[in-house]
Write a structure and sequence with these properties.
Elements lengths: L23 E5 L2 E5 L3 E3 H8 L9 E8 L6 E3 L4 E3 L5 E8 L2
Parallel strand pairs: 1-7
Antiparallel strand pairs: 1-2, 3-6, 4-5, 4-7
Length: about 100
């Protein structure tokens, strides 16, 4: 069964059961965000979590996510994950030692 989202294109990709619309509502560090793509990368999540961090190279980041009908997971630099509406991402940063 597909979720119905008023105002969105509710057709589905053939055989995938996912909406054709590539707009996803996610939560990053407790803040709602809208993403216009079916996947999100590690670096994009970092940018959403810490938009005012001009020089991210001095920090290490840990990215954990949970989503409906998905196993919990983590993202590492260079990785991406397929989005599902309502996914939650927790991003923490620490100083490099």
């Amino acid at each position: 069964m597909n979720d119905y989202h008023p105002g969105h294109n509710n057709e589905t990709h053939e055989g995938k059961g996912r909406p054709i619309s590539s707009t996803f509502h996610i939560i990053v560090n407790g803040r709602p965000r809208i993403v216009d793509d079916e996947q999100i990368s590690y670096s994009q999540i970092i940018e959403l979590a810490f938009p005012d961090n001009p020089n991210g190279e001095q920090f290490l980041y840990s990215v954990h996510y949970v989503g409906r009908c998905l196993p919990d997971g983590t993202l590492a630099e260079g990785q991406s994950v397929e989005l599902v509406n309502g996914m939650k991402f927790d991003v923490t940063k620490t100083n490099r030692s």
